[in-house]
Design brief:
six-stranded parallel β-sheet; 31% helix; 327 residues; single chain; binds NADP nicotinamide-adenine-dinucleotide phosphate
Length: 327
């Protein structure tokens, strides 16, 4: 089978489509015929080994050939022993950590949720990590519910564009966003009340003033004091990711500044890490099926062009998601 692989930590120039043996499912696992895979920042963190501290978990060196990609949607082709919740022929989606950009992928059955017929493979793959992260950041860490006032910082990105829509699905009364001017129309079309262009407000233009109960932040570019000022009494900010920070620690630097520096100005900030995705993949798939949530897919690419897609993602201004189609 064909797969996008690497055999050392590398930038995208070291990735290539190679012929690989079809993986075999073990106990509790399933083999998926991949129809679509979506790209996440997580993928380039993995193949670059960047930030370097990640290598403590992923291996100081890459010793075997690895396949890129975590978010997958496709059809169950074979089931391993002990799998009771999925059957051959089921349409499934989920985040599998590694191995999504291939014609076949193997993962633990618990990582996957059934996709309703109304959810395309592209939508299922696009929503696996990004929408689940948005849901968990809003619902579990932020406590967003009926009547909440929410600001999404990074509202045009993979996580952010889902957060705008999911905040509304959870009952938020006000949902505002921050993104580049080019993406303001897209975020507005998703139902945001006000969308602020960070390029303009950094030059003195209109900026969010709140008050917000929750600020979901995927970039951590604003000073702590500014975020504190826009929060209502008792409000908090949820850190999903952070730009910059350098090669060794990457987002940890921005997250640390917000958590520790925030305390000095009385800012209630919490960082979150998405987990236990499959039940939430199912919730999001239900919302996609009934039209509550619509994944924005900027572009789809064949596997042969996945390296170009990853370069585009690394540049950091994709509107919504990029999806690789395989079948
Ligand atoms: N905690 C978790 O479990 C978890 C899970 C998934 C992702 N993440 C992290 O969350 C972050 C966001 O992920 P994503 O998939 O949404 O990324 P993405 O699709 O690349 O989105 C990035 C967002 O950042 C905005 N942006 C780029 N440059 C900016 C700048 N200079 N100032 C302000 N905003 C800027 C972009 O807006 P424009 O394009 O409009 O410029 C876009 O909205 C990443 O760091 C990722 O690693 C964390």
């Amino acid at each position: 089978m064909q797969a996008l692989t690497y055999d050392r930590y590398t930038d995208s120039s070291g990735l290539s489509v190679t012929e690989q043996p079809q993986p075999e499912q073990g106990e509790g696992q399933v083999l998926i015929r991949v129809h679509a895979a979506s790209l996440n920042a997580y993928d380039w963190h993995m193949y670059k080994g960047d930030p370097t501290f990640m290598r403590l978990m992923q291996g100081l060196r890459v010793k075997e050939r690895r396949t890129v990609g975590s978010d997958v949607a496709g059809v169950v082709e074979q089931v391993g022993s002990g799998v009771t919740e999925l059957s051959v022929g089921d349409r499934v989606g989920g985040s599998i950590g590694r191995g999504a950009l291939a014609e076949y992928a193997v993962t633990d059955a618990v990582n996957l949720a059934l996709l309703p017929d109304a959810v395309s493979y592209e939508a299922g793959a696009a929503s696996a990590m990004a929408a689940v992260t948005a849901l968990q950041a809003l619902r579990d860490t932020g406590g967003v519910g009926q009547g909440s006032r929410v600001l999404v910082w990074g509202a045009s990105g993979g996580v952010g564009h889902f957060a705008v829509q999911i905040a509304r699905a959870l009952g938020a009364a006000q949902v505002d966003g921050v993104c580049s001017g080019a993406n303001v129309p897209m975020v507005t079309s998703l139902g945001a009340d006000q969308v602020f262009d960070y390029g303009r407000f950094e030059a003195g233009g209109p900026q969010p003033t709140g008050p917000y109960d929750v600020v979901i932040d995927t970039v951590v570019t604003a000073p702590n004091k500014q975020v504190k000022r826009m929060l209502a009494d008792g409000g908090s900010t949820v850190i999903v990711g952070a730009l910059g920070g350098g090669k060794v620690l990457g987002p940890v630097v921005g997250i640390g500044k917000r958590l520790v520096g925030g305390k000095l100005v009385g800012l209630k900030a919490r960082a979150m890490l998405a987990s236990d995705a499959a039940p939430d993949v199912a919730i999001v798939a239900g919302w996609i099926a009934d039209g509550t949530v619509t994944p924005v897919i900027q572009q789809t690419y064949p596997l042969a062009d996945a390296v170009s897609a990853l370069r585009e993602l690394e540049a950091g201004h994709v509107a919504g998601k990029l999806v690789i189609t395989l079948a």
